[in-house]
Write a structure and sequence with these properties.
The chain has 110 residues and is an alpha+beta fold. It has one domain: Glutaredoxin, CATH 3.40.30. Helices cover 22% and strands 17% of the residues. The protein contains 2 helices and 4 strands; from the N terminus they run βαβββα. The protein has a 4-stranded mixed beta sheet with strand order 2-1-3-4, with helices on one face. It starts with 5 loop residues before the first strand and ends in a 24-residue tail after the last helix.
Length: 110
């Protein structure tokens, strides 16, 4: 196992990211919840640059499971923290699986 039990990346930049939500707040919320659970030694939450999945955001990726979440809203964060980040069970309704490796931009995204 690596340095952390889970390593979480939150996409906080990108030209075509959805507007209307401050994903920087996602990072703060996730870090706060992990700390409240006393798991800050086991779980690392990081900001990340663009994941080259334009139009599918906001996005969160959780390792070592390599689970990608797309279209994440503030209201989804508690479930992601409790079920997956702390509990180890991915939130299936939010899992992003484009079926094609690499960049997967929506047609209407630049």
């Amino acid at each position: 196992m690596g340095q952390y039990d889970r390593h979480v990346f939150v996409c906080t930049t990108g030209d075509d990211c959805p507007k209307g939500g401050d994903v920087e707040q996602f990072v703060k919320y996730l870090r706060s919840e992990v700390a409240k659970a006393g798991r800050h030694q086991d779980v690392r939450i990081n900001k990340a640059g663009c994941f080259s999945q334009c139009g599918h955001g906001p996005m969160i990726v959780v390792y070592p499971e390599n689970v990608w979440y797309a279209g994440v809203q503030q209201s989804d964060l508690q479930e992601i923290v409790q079920c997956h980040i702390l509990g180890g069970q991915p939130v299936e309704r939010l899992v992003y699986a484009p079926g094609v490796k690499g960049a997967n931009k929506k047609k209407d995204a630049h």
